[in-house]
Amino acid sequence: MTIKKIKTIYDGFYTLRKLVVEENGEIFEREQFESGDGAAALVYDTQKEKYILVKQYRYPARQELLEVVAGVLEDNDPEKTIRKEIEEETGYTVDSLQHIRDIYTSPGACTEKIYMYYAEVSRQKGKGGGLDEENENVKIVYLTQEELLQKELLDAKTIIAVHWLSKKLNQPPKDTEATL
Length: 180
Fold this sequence. Notes:
CATH topology of the largest domain: Nucleoside Triphosphate Pyrophosphohydrolase
Family: Belongs to the Nudix hydrolase family. NudK subfamily.
Shape: elongated
CATH class of the largest domain: Alpha Beta
Cofactor: Mg(2+)
CATH architecture of the largest domain: Alpha-Beta Complex
Largest sheet: 7 strands, mixed
Pfam family, one: NUDIX
Strand content: over 45%
Helix content: 10-25%
Oligomer: single chain
Subunit structure: Homodimer.
């Protein structure tokens, strides 16, 4: 497949582009949604022995979703970004950070790539909750390992993080149907 032409058809908070592509001598058009790349982390408080997730309203889903901490990539530096997001959303400072994997959220239409991490924390130095200037209303949710592995999840990056954890622990999620 060869991209012959790219035209921006909308450039706002997100960007939408129309591409002219060629494959096997055929020319056709596709749209490409660009939201920017992101970083995400499954956060574990080593003092409370609980996982920290966040709950916030997601307008495309029309509901609050329980998610791992995440944010839009800044300065093309996923590690710096996720450390900042963990502090903004949960109030915690990162003690250690482990890269899990990188994923494309929906590669058929979207360019978004998420850099996924596992973070350990032990000190909450702020209240968290997100930034007012970014119109964030983030609620902090603490879950035991058992609660997390049993939780019904809808967010793909969170499901992937929980499956990574269950594999690491050699303990499958209790309700595979709820997390797959």
